[in-house]
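Handoff note, outgoing to incoming analyst
You'll be picking up this chain. Sequence as last confirmed:
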Amino acid sequence: MKTLLITLLTASFLLSCNKDDDKPIAEIDKLPPATQTGANTAGCLVNGEAFLPKGNVQGGNLVLNYFGTDFTFKIAQKRLNEPLKSIGIILEQLEAPLEINQLIILNTEIETLPTRTGIYMFDGTPPPSPLFHQTTPHIKGELLITHHDFDNAILSGTFWFDAINSEGEIVEIREGRFDVQY
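Most recent structure output, in case you need it:
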């Protein structure tokens, strides 16, 4: 009986081993799925690395505000002993409500009105600074609204953009997606 028990335990242990346990997860697979349910999820790749809302951030680590003519979206990340990092999209003075399949070109700097800006920054540092990256008329991106439920205040979409700092360094924001209640 003792031999049978040891044999069963050994077999169970060997069958539960999986070589795939040690394989790293691709950065794109760390992002949440692109949903349209108001799941309050968001993420993107920053220079190929997954960027997700994380940590205790004043005002929240995932924020979307939409007030008819203005739209602000922020993903913030704060890790222990690291500076606060934020990605944002700012639209000001919209001419009409955001609609499904609406493509908005992100091609202005933050000081320009009407604003259509993508930003990436450290510690909330304003421009001009090497810690503040933004779109420009020549360094651009796109925001695509994939879902807008006015009754339940849900906005979903995808985005990408390049952003440049005062020293000419470019950050690539790719595969961005959000599904947020506002």
